[in-house]
Amino acid sequence: MEGVVDRSWLLDPRGRTPAWAMRTLYRLYAQVCKPVHQSEGLTDSQYIVLRTLTERGRLNQVELGQRVALPPTTVTSVLDAMEDHGLLVRVRDRSDRRKQFVELTAAGQEMNDRLVPEMRGIAVSSYKDIAPADLEVFWKVMLTIEKNLLETIGEDQPTD
To answer: Which residues pair with 89 in a beta bridge?
Structure first.
């Protein structure tokens, strides 16, 4: 047919776009990682908050919610549970008492330090049978897609 452009190269053999395939991978990682989180009494959302605070340090509660892409009510319940377990504290902003900052406690940092090696092990085992050069290309492609999407939405930094 004249005028029809072949775009089949955009899809994987199952007909998925990269975004759909990444969603599938995210769900599979979540399934594999869930027992690790649960062994420490964490939900998946709590682990994401723990990792984000570890990587970013002290954040205000609104920014934290944006970075972890959770609705404000969910962020509040996640933070309440983590605070009850002594993993984080909320501190009022002295210049604007309406704002609260969230930061990990020593117990939260210790939990992160226990979990990171196991989580990295899961990631490394998922790369089995992938040549290092292929993994480099994968990261180059992923980061380029990220950059292109950020340009599309007019932002210059991704959320966590």
So the answer is: 103
